[in-house]
Amino acid sequence: MSRQVAVTLVSLLAGGIAWAETTAAAIRPALVQSGPGTIPPFYATSRLEPGQTVVVLAEEGEFYAIQPPPGSFSYVPSAAIRLVPGEKSVGVVHEAVTTLVGSQLNAECSTQGVRLSPGTLVRILGQERIRVGQQELHAYRIEPVGEKRYIVKSAIAQPATVQRQATANHENVMPTVLDSRDSFNPGELNLVRLRQLADQAYQRGCQTGDFGEAKRLYRELSAAADPQVRWEAMNRLEFIRLREQEWAAKNAPSQHLQPTTYRPGPGFPSAPEQPLSAKGADSWRPPGKGDSGVDSSYRVCGVLRRSAFYERGQPLYFLEDHLGRLRCYVFGQDSEKWQAWLGRSVEVYGTPPVYRGDLRAEIVTATCIRPLP
After folding, report:
1. Taking a C-beta distance cutoff of 8 angstroms, is the pair 11, 167 a contact?
2. CA angle, corner 357, sides to 356 and 363, nearest 5?
């Protein structure tokens, strides 16, 4: 009788390389941790019972780094994710974001996981309001992508090594697990070849800006019978969409910006007309600075969005550029009044931007904001 072999096919997005995947079973009840060390600063994320198996990725001191066991999850800020139309459980990362490791045993989520690039598809498991330090954060609970968990070595039996096929590029790796008997069937071999061709076409497109062949191949893969292969193809098609936008923006003809005149909208103070700076219209002092003493020397434009963060009891907003990327956060008193302008292009006057490590972005304190026509 043929022995059943679990064969893991991983996306060959950068040329396949061989690696050893190691599995092991728990020999006693044990806690899975967010990091390889003491609790705290790390914390328990789940519990293993005797006989449960894990995939061992590496040794780190007295701990094994393992793949997150079934039921594991992570958090990402809701503001960094856009839902795929028609897919309530699928989201697309639209600004680079670092995940936070969640726990099935407590409310801890302070350990950082991995950095997700724009265009990464994630499976959404739910939405929660979590506390990170002194801030409350609206977050999606997602399946871990490329993360590790940790377990003490003494709780695991001697690992057994199985040869696998993997990729050198870990960006958006979505493994597909197939069951076979001793060998691949021809359809599986054709699928591997098709994925190789699609990746080669994608790499050429990154060099030339022509993604036509890559899109054709990934659309073909998106109709595959295996749901994981379809997921991988959708992921790459989303990356192609972003790359095409970048190419279009890079090759768009430059436009000379003409000096303009400030005309206050409803609810804004009137003032003598004063021309904006000719150097890109990005530095102007609005009227009233002399009266209030507040520095309003900085001007920035973008699409207004509401973030999941709060600052001094007020919601934080942010501006998107024309590619949908975060430009900066915006704070202001009574910012709840900005709700009517969500999704509209606005111009903001305020203090020059200051980088905030907790936000991993710049923030502007607004003294004036108004929608653009």
Report:
1. yes
2. 20
Residues 12, 197: Cα–Cα separation, whole Å: 9
Closest C-alpha among 289, 201, 276, 277 to residue 243: 201
Q: How far is CA 169 from CA 13, 110, 199, 213, in A?
A: 7, 27, 12, 21
Distance between CA atoms of residues 68 and 45, nearest Å: 9
What is the Cα gyration radius of the chain?
Answer: 25
First to last CA, the chain: 73
pLDDT in tens, 296-341: 678 889 999 988 788 888 888 999 887 777 888 999 887 778 888 8
171: exposed, middle or buried (C-beta count within 10 Å: 0-12, 13-18, 19+)? middle
Query: What's the length of the chain?
Result: 373
Residue 253 is predicted with a pLDDT of 58
DSSP string, 274-293: -BPPTTTS-----TTHHHH-
Provide the residue ranges of all domains of the chain, joining segments of one domain with +: 27-155, 178-251, 253-373
Nearest in space to 326 (alpha carbons), one of 311, 353, 348, 305: 305
Q: At 311, list the tokens.
A: 């600052």
Q: Which amino acid is at 211?
A: F
Write the CA distances from 32 to 76, 146, 283, integer angstroms.
Answer: 21, 17, 52
- Residue with tokens 């009227």, as numbered in its chain: 287
Give the Cα separation of 302 and 282 in Å (integer).
12
Half-sphere exposure of 96 (CA within 13 A, CB side): 7
Three-state DSSP class for residue 223: coil
CB atoms within 10 A of CB 90: 17
Tell me if the domain spanning 253-373 has CATH number 3.40.50: no
Burial-class residue 96 by CB neighbours within 10 Å (0-12, 13-18, 19+): middle
Q: Is the dihedral of CA 361, 364, 370, 373 positive or negative?
A: negative
pLDDT (0 to 100) of residue 287: 38
Number of H helices, E strands in the chain: 4, 22
Q: Which amino acid is at 66?
A: I
